[in-house]
Write a structure and sequence with these properties.
The chain is α/β, with parallel strands linked by helices. It is built from 11 helices and 4 strands, in the order αβαααβαβαααβααα. The protein has a domain at about 30-230 and about 280-305: SGNH hydrolase (Rossmann fold), CATH 3.40.50. The protein has helices at about 5-25, 45-50, 75-80, 115-120, 140-170, 190-195, 195-210, 215-220, 230-245, 285-305, 305-330, and strands at about 35-40, 135, 175-180, 225-230.
Length: about 325
């Protein structure tokens, strides 16, 4: 039996321990905002609004201005983080600045990623919210341009543009950035129709190899910056392998070679079992898989207990154990 004095000490330490558990095991503070910059993969309606509904083509079953038959991956991620409204297009009052057809630079129309940041976002955001999530995903259209003549130098320029984009965010105080590599452009129905599978894949690999160095380079430059890389290339390959070798048992997708029903070039497969909506863009089902993967990548960091709190918890437990050992030795 513990003496009254040690019993009081034990109660005090137990109270400390349970208090620390209540603090340490709650989720870390959630993201306070979400901002997206990029191209058609992330656009939730900016190009549709800007063109008065002319893009994407009204002759195909695109969903509410998205380049897909349903919501896109950014919407799945935003909803999972409790920030669904933040995925709305910038031109409709949201914080998604992505435009279908965008490249990574500052010139041309629609505005590229650097133009989205420098011309649309930056004027009203001299200081970035350090608790928001910033999504910078682009390069697909730059690689499509490069395979038709620009080659590796054009891909290099696109890579540098994205590096500059994340640098701009970090300089203004952003702490949480999500980037993504590209799915294999050479495996799209578009590349097959054009006979450009080999150069499309080669340039995709060049782009992705450099992008893989971003995380370490940027985090090493900016203290406190957290950069996460979503492996769209790997997930795309896994979906293909599952469809071809496993009958789609894992992802539920069996058609990985042609657009889905209703889109030009479709062989009639339902969009629910298809990798693509049109000849280039993912179906809503694929977007849902990408969004879930992004959420899985991002959310665990939101749940981690603070290291200092865990240390205090350990000290409390150790103190209680020591007190009991000393009492028993009397």
């Amino acid at each position: 039996m513990l003496s009254n004095s040690w019993r009081q000490l034990a109660r005090w330490i137990n109270a400390l321990v349970f208090g620390l558990v209540a603090v340490c095991c709650q989720p870390a503070a959630a993201f306070t905002g979400l901002y997206a910059f990029g191209d058609s993969l992330s656009d939730t309606g900016n190009i549709y609004i800007a063109t008065g509904g002319a893009q994407p083509s009204p002759g195909q079953p695109y969903f509410n201005g998205r380049f897909s038959n349903g919501p896109v991956w950014v919407e799945t991620l935003a909803a999972g983080l409790g920030l669904a409204s933040h995925a709305a297009p910038f031109l409709a009052g949201g914080s998604n600045y992505a435009f279908g057809g965008a490249r990574t630079g500052t010139s041309g129309s629609p505005p590229g990623v650097l133009a989205q940041l420098g011309g649309l976002w930056a004027p009203s955001h001299p200081v970035a919210d350090p608790n928001a999530l910033y999504i910078v995903v682009a390069g697909l259209n730059d690689v499509r341009d490069a395979r038709s003549g620009g080659g590796a130098p054009a891909v290099d320029a696109a890579q540098q543009n994205l590096f500059s984009a994340v640098t701009l965010l970090a300089q203004r105080g952003a702490k949480h950035v999500l980037i993504a590599n590209l799915a294999d452009l050479g495996a799209t129905p578009e590349a097959a129709a054009l006979g450009l599978q080999a150069p499309s894949t080669a340039l995709t690999l060049v782009f992705n190899a450099y992008l893989a160095t971003f995380e370490a380079a940027l985090e090493g430059t900016f203290t406190g910056l957290d950069v996460d890389l979503l492996d769209m290339f790997g997930l795309d390959a896994a979906i293909r392998q599952d469809a071809l070798n496993n009958g789609g048992a894992t992802y539920g997708i069996t058609n990985v070679t042609s657009p889905c029903a209703g889109f030009t070039g479709s062989a009639g497969a339902s969009c629910d079992v298809s990798l693509f909506s049109d000849a280039l863009h993912p179906s809503a089902r694929t977007h849902a898989i990408l969004g879930a993967a992004a959420l899985d990548l991002i959310a665990p960091a939101q749940q981690a207990p603070e290291p200092g709190t865990l240390a205090l918890l350990g000290l409390g437990l150790a103190g209680l154990a020591a007190a009991r050992r000393r009492e028993k030795s009397r």
